Structure formats: structure tokens, C-alpha cells
Protein 1
Amino acid sequence: MDKTVDISWVDLSLGYLLLLIPVLIFLYFKINLVKDTIIAAVRMTVQLLLVGIYLGYLFKWDNIFLNVSWVVVMIVAASFTVVKRSNVSLKLYFIPVLSGLLISVLLVDFYFLAIVIKPEPILTARYIIPITGMLIGNTMKSNIIVLNSFYTSLKQNLSFYQYAIGNGATRKEALAPFYKAALKQSINPNIATMAIVGLVSLPGMMTGQILGGNDPSLAVRYQIVIMISVFVIGSISAVLSLLITNRFVFDLFDMPKKEVLKVE
């Protein structure tokens, strides 16, 4: 199979011109996202350039302690981003979100590596870092949606929740409709993505393997287990994020704390 076509630095700079399209859309409709878009693009560029450097060293050294440490750094950074983008209190929500993400990543990551792929050693940098990164990256969206949806809905319908509590419902019973709506909104995009993958789109991992010269059938098998893992970890982390955070955001009278009502 032919060698992957190179992208020069000039070609890469031309790729940035595509960002003008959404920026012009934001300006036309007066959507306050231009600054966020530029900052995100700059951060992405710097971070990925650094990735190209330090991953080379991580793959070369392939030290289990360094590999696991970097996975922990990714989870912490992802948890921070989820809380910030969900418009909730960092002090109140960071530890619960971190706990939910850590548990779900450990469960799915271990199963994926130890049961499905079985690399030797299991925690080799070539597998654990990029695979964990893909799982975390796709999970963040589910967590942001579920937290934003749940707590925004709770704020907007607080009287309904208070009415249920006042009439003898337990916190679990009063929150049931909010759980259902938020989880459905969070998980539905992953179901839609899984349903049309291959028919409408070729995912990043599969495309990367094909461009890298791997057998398309091998790329397909990897992509199938990745899609399943992404869906599972997204579902688990969404549920855990809600269950764990709800143990911290209500007072002794089952009323949401003041920080909860500040959700934008």
C-alpha cells in the first residue's frame, strides 16, 4: 500500500483558513464564541505539537509508571474541562466528576486492553495512551451534556422537585424524571454516532490506520471495539457523574445547595 501523503507546514497553515467559516458565522449572528474558538484552536495546536514530542519519548522509554501517570494527568485535565464547560461549581463538582471518570476509564480501559487486545505488556505506551485518550475525549461530551442538562433542568423546575419532596417522595424518587431526561439527552448522540458510523462517516482511528497503510479489515475491527468502548464508557461515566455529584450537592433536608442554583 502507498505511503501516507505528507502534510507540509504550508499545507497545514492553509488548513487553518477553514476556521474563518465558523468565525464569520459567529460574527454574523453575534454569537459570543469567536474568542473561545481562537483560544481552543491555539491550545489544540500547542498541545498536539507537544504531543508529537513527548509521545515519542514515552513510546521510547515505555515505562509503566510514566504511562499510568500520564493517563492520570489526562483524566484530571478532562475532569477539569468537563466541570468548566458544564457551567457548574468547580469546588463542588470537580472531585465527584473526577471520581466518576476515573472509575469508568479504569473499568473499560482494563477490559479493552486486558481482554480484547491483550498487548504485551498490557500497559505498553503505544496502546494505553492513545486508546485511553480516545475514550476520555469521547466521554467528555457525554459528561458535559448530562451535567448541564440535569442541573439546568433542576434549577428551572425546582418547584416541581420541592413539591415532590414536600409530599413525601424520597430524593431518588423526586429526581427520577431529571435523571431520565438528562441521561437520554447525553446518551442519544452516542447511539446516533454508532448507528451511522461506516455508512455516513469513517471515524478518526479507522481513517488514521488506513492512511497509515494498515489493512482496512484490521482497522474496522479496531474501530468496532473502540465504538463499543466509547458508548459503554460514556454511559457509565454519565451515570456515575450524576450519582456521585448528587451525594455532595444536597443538604440534610434534600434541598440543593446554593452553588447548584447558580448553574447558568
Protein 2
Amino acid sequence: YEHCSYVDETGFNELLRTCGFDPVRSRLDYQGQYLVVHARLAEPSPMPARAELPDFAPLAGHIDHWRAWATTFTESGGRAAVWAASSKAVAFLSAVPEFEPLVAVDINPAKAGRHLPGSGLGVVAPADLAPYDVDTIVVMNPIYLEEIGADLAQLGIDARLIGLGA
């Protein structure tokens, strides 16, 4: 099942070899969000003595950017929502406590009326967003910006969309 993790192609292929698979080919898909690996059974190989770790410094800079943005946004009286009641939203809200959106929006009707873990942020369906009068929506997956913009236009909601990856 899909879930975000921070592993690069080299590290994942080494893990597969260690577990007895032979990576045949790999590629990034879904605008670079997914690593797809085709592998076949092989003999397990020993774990390398010291595996190289990815450089997480760019991620820390990204978080610093969002924390500064959230502080300015909150101080200016902005009213925001996050789009997607997902693990990305939970992680984002945990990493950027300065950001205090009014609500999370999700198209899955089973999530409406629920709350996000950690922040306790309530979740609404897109059709129930209007009363919150948000001026900004932080979209957890920017691949959906155009689709979300069209949905909001149909609902008569005029809010600035910001993609998390942007």
C-alpha cells in the first residue's frame, strides 16, 4: 500500500538485494513521488558494512521555509485550510506547529466529521468548506492543484492554493 518514506533508489535496491531479490529496473513515477522497482528472486546478499544515508539537509531547509511562512501568515490574520486529511497533512502539521489551519478538507466522504491525529484538526468535505471562509488552502500534493482549483470554482470558493511541494 502506498505510503511516503524517504529512501532513494540506491538504498532501496540494496535492501532488496539483502532480502534476496535482484532489482531488474527502477524508475520514478507520478511526478517523482513514487519509486517503482521491478525485481526477481535471487540469493540474499550480505548487508553492506556502512550504507550511505541520504542528505536530509534540504528537507530541514524546506521545513524552515514553511515555518517562517506560517508565522507570517498567522501574524497577518490569514485563514487557512489544508487539503487532504492524509499522513502528509499529519506530518506537515507536526513539523510546522506555527501553522494553525481552521480545517482539513478531503474528498473521501468517510473522513468527513473525523479529526487528524496529533493536531485534532477537523475534517470536512469540499462542499462543507465555504462557512470557514478561508483565504488560503495548502494542498498536500501539488499534483492536484488544477483539479482542486476547478472543484473550488464550482463550489464558488475563492481561495489561494499553495502546493506543499511549491
Protein 3
Amino acid sequence: MKDVDAARALIFLKLGGSLLTDKTQTKAVRADVLHRLAEEIAAARAEHPSMRLLIGHGSGSFGHVTARRYHTRDGVATPEQWGGYAETARVAAELNRQVVQALGDAGAPALPIQPSASAYCRNGELSSLQVRPIRTALNKGLIPVIYGDVALDAVRGGTIVSTEELFAYLAPRLRPERILLAGEVAGVMTADPARDPNARLIPRVTPATLPEIANRLGASRGTDVTGGMAAKVSEMAALLQTAPTINVIHILSGLEPGLVRKALTNAATEAGTRIMRDASNAEAA
């Protein structure tokens, strides 16, 4: 593959909530990780100024902890639950402000985009979201920054939309070439490496091979109301089938210094796990 600068390719980059925060605590930002990643992203844009980039991030120990307390993902009905819905929105936006600030301090033109301002769901599935502000920001050379957030729901009252669900909605409309998911592990593993020293990296996943490895995908450590690694890989594998512009979805470690910058500027980076459309696509990448 050629460098992404060649065709002003659009890249979606997710910074995982477990990467940016300590999800075993409440509202605990990993400030050193956040600022290093912001510098890597800014450096990648400086190296390839025509790169078009949309960033999404998880809510980590901000939104997930609050949403878990009020069961917001499952629905919102009582006054207490609606209070929890509003609180979840506030803390998710609080982390977003810190991410955008770090990117701005590093020299990246980051623009916060609040999903809950326009997102609407039906029984837990995202059915509408305003895309024009995001598309316009991209066309003006800005970096829109979205995040896992609450959303009103026609059936449940309210719910949660993950970054992966936002990406799945936006991909057919914005047509990215690549999606990068940066987390705290090296990629998709056969087991949780924090618990199993024999855990191995799975370098390639295709829709055909997903069923046989699905039961081995490790769940998320800490609090995660959106399903952990198994749900993320399944969602991304399904997305490949509906978004033909995507060449590869790349899951990699954001804890390895320099790797996010390398992946942004060089599509042939081999580290991590690649989710491919089929075996022939995997061989070509």
C-alpha cells in the first residue's frame, strides 16, 4: 500500500477508553499516554498535511462507570435513570474536553463533536446522526473528535452509543479507507494477556475465521458497558461487508510509543491485528 498522503485518504482512528483511562477507577486519565498520543497524531499530520482524520475515543472510567451504575445502555425511564443519563453525558464530555485540549496543545486542529446532540436510536441501534458538520470539518482540514456518548432512543428512552457504533454509521457516509483501533493490548489476543502469560496475538481476522476465534476473544478489563473486545471485533468485521471503501481495520497497541504515528503514516504497518474482508484481501495488504 502507498502512504496515506497520496490520495488524501480518510482515516478513522479510535483511542480506546482503556488506553486513555484506568477503567478500574473513576475518572482516572492516563495523562502521560494521552499527551504522547496527541503528539504522535500531530506529528503524523505535520508529516502528511493532506491526511484527513476523524478521531473517536471511548469513555473509559468516565462514561462507562456512570452508565453502569444507572444501567443506561438497557434503557432510561425513571427520574433517577434520567438523572444518570444526564450525568453520563456530562462525564463523557469531560473526557472529550481533555482529549481535544491535549490534541490542540500538541498542534493538531481538533474540533469536538458531541454525538448526543443529534444521535437518535431505535431499540439500541443508531438510526440517525448529523453527518454534515463532521464532513464540513474534514473538508476544512480540521480533525473532528467524537466519542462514546448517550443517545435518545425511541424504544428504550435513552441508551449508549459506542465509538464503534458511531464509526459503523459514519463509514458508509464518509467512506474512510482505513480504520485504526488503538487500545492497551497488542491486538486481538487468544486470551487476556494480563491473566494468561501464554496469550498469543491473532494477526489476521476475516468474517470467515471470526466464528472459530470468537469464543477466545478476551473481555474488557474494568467496567465496559458496550461489550469489550468480542463485540468490537464482531462489529468491525460486519462493517467491512457494508463499507467497500475500507481496505483494512487495524487493531494495535497505543501503549507502544510511536506505533500510532507509524500506523497513521504507513498503511503497511504490520504490528497488531488486521481485520480483512477475506483471505485474498489479507494477502494483498
